[in-house]
Amino acid sequence: MFNKIISGSIALSLVLLAGPASAMPNHQTAELSAPGTNRVLTLPTAADNSPVISLGTAIDPQSGKVVEGIAIVHPKKTYDHKPQHDAAKAGGKGGGSSCYAFLANGAKWKSVENWAINTNNNENLTGSFVFDNFAASLDKWETAGGANIFGNGAVTSDVLSADTESPDGVNEVYFGDVGSQGAIAVTIVWGIFSGPPFARELVEWDMVLDEVDFDWSATGEAGKMDYENITTHEIGHAAGMGHPDDSCLEETMYRFADYGETKKRDLNAGDIAGIDKLY
Ligand SMILES: [Zn+2]
Q1: Range of the domain at 158
Q2: Which of 81, 120, 200, 244 could form a disulfide with 35 if both were Cys (CB 3.0 to 4.6 A apart)?
Q3: Distance (Å, rounded) from C-alpha 205 to C-alpha 190?
Q4: 182 CA distance to ligand 1 middle (Å)
């Protein structure tokens, strides 16, 4: 097993709100201020109003490769009645009746990268809980996949910024405000999602948990989003998992969540089969 250790000594050199100007038009910049204050992640509007938003292409600063960005919005049940979006179709459902999908077949982590979390929140969740629980949820996916997918985490007090224009080389998690109606959380993943599957890969992920429109709980309280329930789902995206067919109600990767729900904390058969196949 892998030990996720708080590495306070890891020096995170974060490029905040200062990424290189993108050549892409029509993409808005994330607007963030200090943790604990009003921070809004503004995403471009998806052409088809799907919960998967294309962020266009950019250069990965670490590899120099051209990569594509996608933002996967996790909506509360009542806000979205659109048909199944295209990501699961594009990624494939796997064989037979398997309840899983990939962001794109073969698009997975090929190197282990560390991650940073700003545990600051207005939800009365302790920093140690926010970090430890998140690390434990990463472990669930790694155990199911039989692979070391994610590196070590570090708690930071730096203002983090989910990267909507180009990756910055840091995998970031924080509480904020997602400027899309009904969005509980958003995970942004940068990678190569097309071309031969063997040449596909993931290069960065960022995650924003909306604490402005939703309250959060450590214990599955009614009227609040359960932190472990939601983050376990989002981590699936960070590992390369998509949303399965809408008939797969019991999967962690089922695309909707609701107040008080805790069943996504534990990976279901389809989640496990999918991550095992991907890795
Ligand atoms: Zn999702």
Answers
A1: 51-278
A2: 120
A3: 6
A4: 13
